[in-house]
Amino acid sequence: MSEARSFIAKLVVKPERRDEFVNLQSELKGLVHAQEPDALVYELLQSDDDPNTFFCVATFKDQGAFDHHMGIDFHDRLVPPILDCLAQDMELSFHRSLS
Q1: pTM for the full predicted model
Q2: In the prediction, which pLDDT does 64 show?
């Protein structure tokens, strides 16, 4: 059985682009939930300490589901403008579930 593939992305947004970022991420999240049944978790969290810091947490059924996510058409359309809203490079880390 293939192991689930998870990531956590820390995204620090330019304050003047925060609303645009949230709108783009909301569209991305909705499309992931609607069109990627093997995306088990896909959530955007906003820091309580800094309103310009967000975390995207995602878990995919396996490596194939993650690869599918990375290549799906709406990912290619939405991710570049999302990254353009950032004040610094995204911090991305991969994780595995222990349960």
Answers
A1: 0.92
A2: 94
